[in-house]
Design a protein that fits this description.
CATH superfamily of the largest domain: Aldolase class I
Mean pLDDT: 85
Radius of gyration: 28 Å
Number of helices: 17
Shape: elongated
Distance between the termini: 87 Å
Number of domains: 3
Strand order of the largest sheet: 1-2-3-4-5-6-7-8
Strand content: 15-25%
CATH architecture of the largest domain: Alpha-Beta Barrel
CATH topology of the largest domain: TIM Barrel
Low-confidence stretches: 1-7, 510-529
Length: 529
């Protein structure tokens, strides 16, 4: 049997944390997260993310690296101008000019990063251990003289000689630093190494932990850091960052709240924050990601759906509402009677026992073809089983889109009820322009929200067929629709119009039912007279 702990000290995770402990978060999405390949945030995007982080109660926000350039400094100034409750910091290398540039941006604090491993000291900056210690103390004193909150990170700390790392951080704390930070810069450390290093740094004073996920240990190493005495965790929204990314801030927050009753952030804000960062960075949310993934509160299996309908906590560790989410029941080859019935009830479709059995069989058949069964699929199946003609409220008659050298434009001709409507729109691309044209044509009928928009190429080549799947909501109603076509603009518009038509059909059905119930009530009243 392999001894995973290799004789190292026990890690008392079970008893290390309780609700009396205080743990704070430092978000580095705007600095470390932006180091993910292909990510470049505008000043406006950084300000929006910083504002949402502050709304979520995150205590520390690293707004960027003032030393990067004037553009980055202007971005940091936009964040500091927001007058947030959070402590806004700048990343600073181990040189005085970086601290001066940070001061010029009006930040509340600096994270001073100095080399800790011999690899960085000798090969990267060509210095010595003693010079690093002396320089670090001087920089801390300078920053504190200017009333800054100061954290010192030993870069590549997990590969540093522990005795030297201790000496370095002791000198930093003695010089006035508010805290030291253990940094697993390249995601190298095992939990045993992390526990030992953080324990020894915690004996010197307040210590933070900064972990990366190259070995898949980012979250585990946060937990052993907390067990070892750390009380501040560095992380990024959605876990974005260089290479395999950083520990995900939202996962740390929910795990501390759910498992230990320790509050670090306003949990209901987490999903909105995740979506904001995803849209700003063009990094989609992984469907299987904890807290923020599409599948986190989505149930398909017949057994799971049935159990969830009987007891909402049956197959969920915490309420989706607690993190700003909603529970979803989707249909596929694992669907059962309870799940299909619940989905039909949501759309006000009444079915008999024999009809529900036939519908379930058709849903399973569709799911067996490796296809997700959307709401539109289900409603179409129900209409076919019941032999009902569908009375469409909205239908696309014609679509024209152009995206030449100028502004993308589009025009649509729709049939809405008994009338035809024509409208045009402009946008950032042909799809955006076409959607705006549809909204203009529908007017108040388009009072619906596009909750998700997903495109998949299902064939290869320049004439590839794409599938567009949208989810839209109107009031408390939600509907999902998928459409396929070689023209992505037409495909997108058809999917959205189908979704809008389904949403409007539900409202019309309810209105008709209300009229019938009212008529029935009048008949009873007359009979009583």
């Amino acid at each position: 049997m392999v001894d995973l702990f290799g004789g190292s000290p026990d890690i008392p995770l079970a008893s290390a944390l309780d609700s009396d402990d205080t743990v704070q978060l430092l978000d580095t999405t705007l600095r470390d997260g932006e180091q993910a390949p292909g990510v470049s945030l505008t000043p406006e995007q950084k300000a929006e993310v910083a504002h949402e982080l502050d709304q979520a109660g995150v205590e520390f926000i690293e707004a960027g690296s003032a030393c990067t350039g004037e553009g980055e400094r202007e971005t940091i100034r936009q964040v500091t101008a927001l007058d947030l409750d959070a402590t806004v910091t700048s990343f600073a290398r181990g040189v005085k000019s970086d601290i001066e540039l940070a001061l010029d941006c009006g930040v509340d604090g600096v994270t001073i990063v100095v080399p800790a491993s011999d690899r960085h000291i000798k090969k990267k900056i060509g210095s010595t251990r003693s010079e690093v210690i002396t320089t670090t103390a001087e920089l801390v004193e300078y920053a504190k003289d200017h009333d800054l909150w100061v954290e010192v990170i030993g870069e590549d700390g997990s590969r540093a000689e522990i005795e030297f790392l201790e000496r370095l951080m002791k000198e930093a704390l003695d010089a006035g630093a508010n805290r030291s930070c253990y940094a697993d810069t390249v995601g190298h450390a095992t939990p045993e190494t992390t526990y030992e290093y953080v324990s020894r740094l915690a004996a010197l004073g307040p210590v933070s932990t900064h972990t990366h996920d190259d070995l898949g240990f980012a979250m585990t190493n946060v937990w052993v850091s907390l067990a070892a005495g750390a009380d501040l965790v560095h992380g990024t929204v959605n876990g974005i960052g260089e290479r395999a990314g950083n520990v995900a801030l939202e996962e740390v927050a929910i795990a501390l709240a759910h498992g230990y009753d320790i509050e670090t952030a306003t949990l209901e804000q987490l999903y909105s924050l995740a979506q904001t960062v995803s849209q700003a960075t063009d990094i989609p949310l992984p469907p299987n990601k904890a807290v923020i993934g599409e599948n986190a509160f989505t149930h398909e299996s017949g057994i799971h759906t049935d159990g969830t309908l009987k007891d909402k906590t049956m197959y969920e560790p915490y309420s989706p509402a607690s993190v700003g989410r909603e529970r979803r029941l989707v249909l596929g080859k694992h669907a059962g009677h309870a799940g299909v019935q619940a989905a039909l009830d949501e759309h006000c479709v009444d079915v008999s026992e024999s009809e529900i059995t036939a519908i379930v069989d058709r849903v399973k058949e569709l799911g067996d073809r490796d296809k997700r069964v959307t709401d539109a699929d289900l409603l179409t199946i129900a209409e076919e089983v019941q032999g009902r003609e569908r009375d469409r409220h909205v239908k696309l008659l014609d679509l024209t889109a152009a995206s030449g050298g100028g502004t993308p434009t589009a025009s649509v001709r729709l049939r809405v009820g008994e009338n035809e409507r024509v409208a045009s729109g402009t946008g950032s691309g042909p799809v955006d322009a076409a959607v705006e044209a549809v909204r203009a044509a529908l007017g108040t009928d388009a009072d619906a929200q596009l909750d998700s928009y997903h495109v998949d190429a299902i064939t290869g080549g320049t004439d590839a067929v794409v599938t567009v799947e949208v989810e839209m909501s109107r009031g408390d109603r939600t509907v999902s629709v998928a459409a396929s076509d070689s023209d992505i603009t037409r495909c997108s518009v058809e999917a959205m119009i189908e979704a809008l038509d389904r949403l409007l059909s539900v409202d019309n059905n309810e209105a008709s039912s209300d009229v019938e119930r009212s008529a029935d009530a009048d008949d009873v009243s007359l009979a009583d007279d």
